Every structure is written in C-alpha cells, then in structure tokens.
Amino acid sequence: MSKFAHRFNSALEMKALSRRELARLSGVHVNTLNNWAGGEVPNPHPEPLKKVASCLGVSYEWLRTGEGDMAPPASPEKALRAAERLVPGGSYRHEKRSESPFDPELMEQVVRLVEDYARLFRKQLGESQRVELMERAYQLCLEAGFTGRPPISMSQFQKLLKTE
Questions:
Q1: 99-143, pLDDT tens digit by residue?
Q2: Which of 37, 47, 84, 116 is the most exposed place for a label (fewest CB within 10 A)?
Q3: 3-65 in CATH: which number?
Q4: DSSP code of 132?
Q5: pTM for the complete prediction?
Q6: What's the half-sphere exposure (Cβ side, CA atoms, 13 Å) at 71?
Q7: Is it true that the peptide bond before 150 is cis, omega within 30 degrees of 0?
Q8: Are the C-beta atoms of 149 and 14 separated by less than 8 Å?
Q9: 10-41 b/e with 16+ CB inside 10 Å = b?
C-alpha cells in the first residue's frame, strides 16, 4: 500500500465515513476513492484531492505529501467565516457562554461536522436550527474535552449529540 493510501485510509477512518459517504460529500466519484484507498493512485489530481481533504478535515498538503500538520491551520476569522456560511444571509457571532476561550480549530471542525451531519443524514435544517446545533455542539465538545486536535470523528460527534 502506498504512503498516500495509508494517509487517505487513516483520515477516512478517523472521520468515520465510508467511501460512498465521502463521495457524496466531496463530489469525487466513489471509484476514484476506491482506487486511492487501494493504493492504485499514489499521486491523485489536485482538485479532487483538495475537495476530499476539506471533507476529511485534514490539510491538503499533509494528505498529498505527508508533510506538515494533519489538521489544517485555523484562525478565529476563518472559523467564524465558516460558521457564517451555515447562516445564509445572516451572520454568526460567537458568544462567550463559558469560561473557556474561543477555540477556532474546534469551531471549524464543529462547522464542518454540522454540515456533514446535515448532508449525510439528509436533515433539512433551517437557519436557526443550524446555529442552535452548531452552538450546542461547540459547547458539548468543550465540555467533553475536545480541543480540535486530533479531529473529531463523525461517530464521536453523533455520540456527543445523543448523550446530551
């Protein structure tokens, strides 16, 4: 198995997604993902790889080469912009609801997980439901001790939502 295939399979396992689910989320054909997972394509094309890296919550450079941090860099501005994408026509502002400082990496993951959760389970969430789920999930992640590194898997996220 190629080093790329190993990184791809590890990231896929951490996210707790099947290749079929990842194909649906990323728009990359499942046969392509199967070829990557089997080590048949040691150097995938950049565009599909960027989409997949984004869906898996890993850095493109790490997935492509194994170099750098596995998790993409996050900033408070980037996390808030990602959160604002969940609120069409509106804006999201993090309100300090606990003594914990704002964790942009965690917020970015929560935003991605809420988006993935809605797509995977075909949940039709309105604007207020998305914001509420995002805020609740962020608080639950903080309370559970998640820091944004390592990335939170979808199965961990689902368990967190169910234990509330």
A1: 556 677 777 777 777 777 776 666 666 666 767 777 777 777 777
A2: 47
A3: 1.10.260.40
A4: H
A5: 0.51
A6: 18
A7: yes
A8: no
A9: ebbebbebebebbbbbbebeeebbeebbeeeb
Q: How far apart are the first and last CA of the chain?
A: 40
Residue carrying the six token digits 């965690």:
106
CA distances to 4, 42, 134 from 9, rounded to whole Å, are 9, 13, 27
Q: Which 3 state secondary structure label does DSSP give 99?
A: coil
Tokens 């990323």, residue located: 26
The tokens 């492509």 sit on which residue?
64
- Name the DSSP letter for residue 102: P
Omega before residue 46 within 30° of 0, cis: no
- What is the tens place of the pLDDT at every residue in 7-55? 999 888 877 788 999 998 899 999 999 999 999 998 899 999 999 988 8
Angle (CA) 147-110-135 rounded to 5° is: 100
